[in-house]
């Protein structure tokens, strides 16, 4: 799907510099027959105007509840929300300058595409001309021209989601909220829609909060990712930072794949630590919680940062290939070492030259790509 270029001056971008959203120690408890659940636990966030931020985490970590509190569909137990500096906690959802896009599209089945898109504007009692021009903008920018008179059931899943996005855009919200909007689409369409959502969001400059449990989606779309676990924020950072410098074993394990090699920091060199891992002494960047007194830590090593080679000189290597798995562009090796099993990923090599199972190998770690974490 491509987005038609809008005519100059027709894109009603959000007023520059508006749409700053601040969550301050937002907390939500649900009390039921089986006791009290803290779904959201002191979540604080400062989302910049026009920023695309993703809430990411396993099922039940509180992503959707956080989003629903921001939208006003759920009341917080404590904590506050500010939009452009003003508290909005007591504002009913329909008065908040926000729009939400759902996984289920939530289109009205008895209304046409055009009526669905214009619904919010009619509710706001906007003038006929204004509605017509906003509709034209939304229909064109979401590539829905020619589909205006169809019913939702006459559209594909991707088209329905574009209608849902057009309906959200047309009311010119300051904040767009997305609740797993792509999980009903097949993998190829999902990829295309990720790019389209980002293009549209940038074009309009709308602050966006996007909920997903798909780390790939979060990594490819976000300015920053908020990793959540059991209602709490584990880390807020750019995708690159989260991948290279995860704040905990939980984050490192949840985002991408990682080896954790148990080790003891021997001494600190500024903010780095000297450790021994797989028989080599390395100086590696360390999490701020690591200090000279830390008695045990994990060295996080991404599989694609380890170099593996067969022992050819008759000497002894550090490990043995347990399993070789082909993935097309990459090959995975599981290597048994005295420090546990290490996964190594090789890219761009001739698969016919892959190391076979049972091969004795050397491993070289890249200290610049490793990161030392505390164990908790
Ligand atoms: N209305 C409710 N009443 C009671 N408990 C609830 C309610 N809504 C959510 N919860 C609980 O709050 C916690 C957080 O739920 P939430 O839906 O926010 O998680 P999530 O991260 O969005 O999960 P998922 O990815 O599965 O949608 C869960 O333990 C859930 O069971």
Automatic annotation (TrEMBL):
This is Iron(III) transport system ATP-binding protein. It comes from Allocatelliglobosispora scoriae. GO terms for cellular component: ATP-binding cassette (ABC) transporter complex. InterPro entries: AAA+_ATPase (IPR003593), ABC_SmlMolc_Importer (IPR050093), ABC_transporter-like_ATP-bd (IPR003439), ABC_transporter-like_CS (IPR017871), Mo/tungstate-bd_C_term_dom (IPR008995), P-loop_NTPase (IPR027417), Transp-assoc_OB_typ2 (IPR013611). SUPFAM superfamilies: MOP-like, P-loop containing nucleoside triphosphate hydrolases. GO terms for molecular function: ABC-type transporter activity; ATP binding; ATP hydrolysis activity. The keyword Translocase does not apply. Keywords: ATP-binding, Nucleotide-binding, Transport. The keyword Nucleotide-binding applies. Residues 21-255 form the ABC transporter domain. It comes from the Bacteria.
């Amino acid at each position: 799907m491509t987005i038609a270029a809008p005519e100059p001056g027709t894109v009603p971008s959000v007023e520059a510099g508006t749409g700053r959203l601040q969550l301050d120690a937002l907390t939500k408890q649900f009390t039921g027959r089986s006791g009290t659940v803290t779904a959201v636990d002191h979540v604080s966030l400062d989302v910049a105007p026009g920023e695309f931020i993703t809430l990411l985490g396993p099922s039940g970590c509180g992503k959707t509840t956080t989003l629903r509190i921001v939208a006003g569909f759920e009341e917080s137990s404590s904590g506050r929300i500010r939009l452009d500096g003003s508290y909005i906690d007591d504002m009913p959802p329909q008065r908040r300058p926000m729009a939400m896009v759902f996984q289920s599209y939530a289109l009205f089945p008895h209304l046409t595409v055009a009526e669905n898109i214009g619904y919010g504007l009619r509710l706001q009692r906007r003038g006929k001309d204004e509605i017509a021009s906003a509709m034209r903008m939304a229909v064109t920018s979401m590539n829905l021209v020619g589909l205006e008179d169809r019913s939702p059931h006459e559209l594909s899943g991707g088209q329905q989601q574009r209608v849902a996005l057009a309906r959200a855009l047309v009311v010119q919200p300051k904040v767009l909220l997305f609740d797993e909007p792509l999980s009903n689409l097949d993998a190829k369409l999902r990829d295309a829609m990720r790019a389209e959502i980002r293009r549209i969001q940038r074009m309009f400059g709308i602050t966006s909060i996007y909920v997903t449990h798909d780390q790939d989606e979060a990594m490819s779309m976000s300015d920053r990712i908020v990793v959540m676990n059991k209602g709490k924020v584990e880390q807020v950072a750019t995708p690159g930072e989260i991948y290279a410098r995860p704040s905990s074993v939980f984050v490192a394990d949840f985002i991408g794949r990682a080896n954790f090699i148990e080790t003891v920091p021997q001494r600190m060199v500024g903010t780095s630590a000297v450790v021994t891992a797989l028989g080599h002494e390395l100086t590696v960047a360390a999490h701020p919680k690591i200090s000279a007194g830390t008695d045990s830590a994990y060295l996080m090593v991404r599989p694609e940062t380890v170099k593996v080679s067969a022992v050819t000189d008759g000497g002894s290597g550090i490990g043995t290939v347990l399993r070789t798995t082909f993935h097309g562009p990459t090959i995975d090796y599981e290597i048994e070492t005295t420090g546990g099993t290490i996964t190594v990923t090789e890219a761009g090599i001739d698969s016919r030259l892959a190391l076979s199972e049972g091969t004795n190998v050397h491993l070289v770690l890249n200290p610049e790509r490793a990161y030392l974490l505390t164990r908790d």
